[in-house]
Amino acid sequence: MGKITIWHNPRCSKSRQALSLVEENGCEKEIVKYLEETPTKDEIKNILSMLGVSAREMMRTKEDIYKELDLKDENNEEKLIDAMVANPKLIERPIVIKNDKAVIARPPEKALELLS
């Protein structure tokens, strides 16, 4: 089984639950505390490609910063990605990555798709 990387926020219950599932399955893991180790623009683009989603689908649209930056009507992917780099709190969590695949583990059980 390949190593699992999880973009993790320890303060988030869903993120903690997904991490527990990874640990319960005995997976070798790397934990990226993305709020402390802000992902680069290229890293975010790579994850978006693995997820197969748009930048907005990887964003926490209910965060105050999303509203403050008035991103609701922004359709430029580059600007949305730049907003996530500048404000990692906008990145949906947790993101579980294995090889060239990733899932947003909401609900946390979605992580199981990569653990088998």
From TrEMBL:
Protein family according to the UniProt entry: Belongs to the ArsC family.
One GO MF term attached to the UniProt entry: arsenate reductase (glutaredoxin) activity
Keyword Hydrolase belongs to the record: no
Keywords from the UniProt entry: Oxidoreductase
UniProt xrefs under InterPro entries: Arsenate_reductase, Arsenate_reductase-like, Thioredoxin-like_sf
Principal EC category: oxidoreductase
Domain of life: Bacteria
Name of the protein this chain belongs to: Arsenate reductase (Glutaredoxin)
EC number: 1.20.4.1
Entries under Pfam families matching the protein: ArsC (PF03960)
SUPFAM superfamilies for this protein: Thioredoxin-like
